[in-house]
Each structure stands twice: as C-alpha cells, then as structure tokens.
Design a protein that fits this description.
With 307 residues, the protein is α/β, with parallel strands linked by helices. The protein has one domain: Alpha-Beta Barrel (TIM Barrel), CATH 3.20.20.70. Helices cover 38% and strands 16% of the residues. It is built from 10 helices and 12 strands. It has an 8-stranded parallel β-barrel, surrounded by 8 helices. Strands 5-6 form a two-stranded antiparallel sheet. Strands 11-12 form a two-stranded antiparallel ribbon. The protein is globular. GO terms for molecular function: 3-keto-5-aminohexanoate cleavage activity; metal ion binding.
Length: 307
Amino acid sequence: MSDPVIITAAITGAIHTPTMSEALPVTPEQIVDAAVDAAEAGAAIVHLHARNPETGAPDQSPEAFAPILGAIKARADVVINITTGGAPTMTVQERVRPAEHWQPELASLNMGSMNFGLFGMLSRFPNLNHQWEADYLGNHDIIFRNTFQDIGFVLDTLQSAGTRFEFECYDTAHLYNLAHFRDAGKVSGPLLIQTVFGLLGGIGPHPDDVAHMKRTADRLFGDEYVWSVLGAGRHQMPIAAISAAQGGNVRVGLEDSIWLEKGVLAPSSAAQVTKAREIIEGLGRRAATPAEARAKLALKGGDNTAF
C-alpha cells in the first residue's frame, strides 16, 4: 500500500487540563516546542489551540496565537491547522476569530451540535489545581453548539482566505451535514474528514463504529474525500491502526489522549506521533511529508497565510 499516511498532531486542545499531565503544553513556548517536535517525528499537520499561560484555560483570542504561529513556521515545514472549535463553552464568533485573523492553510470545523461529556475524567483526576478545571470538567450541561447557521458562518467567514478544512465528524449525522453543504456548493473536494470516536456524546470507539462511519463516508463522498481518524483516550492507537490498515490517515496528540499506552502518560505529542509512525511502517506504509499532505488536500501553501 504505497499511499502515504498523513499524520496530524493535535498539540494541546481544550479537553485535557494542566493537572492531568505535566506534559500538556500551556505556554506559547511549550506549544511551539511541542509542535516542532511532533513535526520532526513525522507529523505533516499540527492542529493548534492556545491557552492562558497562567491558568492553562483555553484562550481563543487571535492575540494568544500570535507568539505561536510564526515561531512554528520559522522552525518547521509543517501544515498549521487552527481550531475553530475552541472550547465547547465558547460562541462560534469567538471560536472563528483566530482563523479569520491568521488565515491558515487549514482550520478545523465541527459538523454538528452534540452533548459533550467530560465529567467521567473527574473520578480519575479528583485533585485539580484550578477551580476552572473542576467547573469545566464537572459540567453535565454542555451542548457543543454547531448549528447549520454556525457552520455556514464559519465557511463564509474563511472562504475569501482560501483556508480549507479538517471536517470533524463525531457521529453519522455529521457526515450527512457535510454532504448537505457539499450539495449546496459551499464546500468541495478533496474533503479532509476527521471521524472522531470515543468521546462521550459522539459515536463510540468499537471497530463496528469505525466501519460504519467509513462506509457512510464512502457512500456519500466517494473519491471526493480523504479519510482520517481520531480515537479519544485509550482508543487513540487502536483506531489509528484500523485506519492505517485500511488506507486511511491518523490524528494523534495530547489534545485527544494524554496516554502513550495503558497506564503510561505520554511524554509528548511527538512520542505519540512516533508510535503511530511505527504502526504505519509496520503495515508497509510511510508517513506523508508536508508537501505530500498539501498536494493531497489541495492546500494554498504556507506562504499564503497571514503569519
């Protein structure tokens, strides 16, 4: 199987909190170093959030990304993907601002509203260092709002910049939502579809769930899309292996899992990239270069961003 695998490294995210792992990057310098290390380990794409360097809370202001983006670009040839997901407690207007301002090659886009349950982690991490962590993780009332209006707003806001999207699909309906926007002429291929498994509120992590999402995407999009997978928590590597064995692509990183293997905290996103790369190479495939990822996804190139 000669088609190279695009590895995305999601560096810090907005789900895990600083108390959970000392490896989770919080400051701009830590996020930059983590992204560069992941690129050197084999990631063609780095998916970025920003955080308040004092508290570690998610920060979706354009200013928070300013010391991160150019520094990564100066040190690594890697595709930079800015989140428009931010945190599920933010408005879509807040969430889109960094991508609108910085005009990256890629931005993530969540394709449907959903319940968002993080409270299961409280039993594993009962002694949190910040009150915001307890309030955030303990919230049983989070709905991650991504209405048709919200999705259309993000698409319209970023259209003129030539930014393309990592379409995050947490359930089957999200694939149909994406097909709706494709049919309406709002998006076109190649579509990078990131199918997400194992987050409470979305589809589960069973291999049958992965097969169901893949079959549905094949039927709806045919050769218009590039398939990638994201397994939450302990499901990260098993689901990456399923995708790699079937010709797909993978996303790893501390945003999605703080674990390297059972009972072992990952020392970095780069360590997870290395482990994913070993799985990929064991299957007779190889990691894609950033140039190969840009060509496969029809990206505008790193010189055409605002950073």
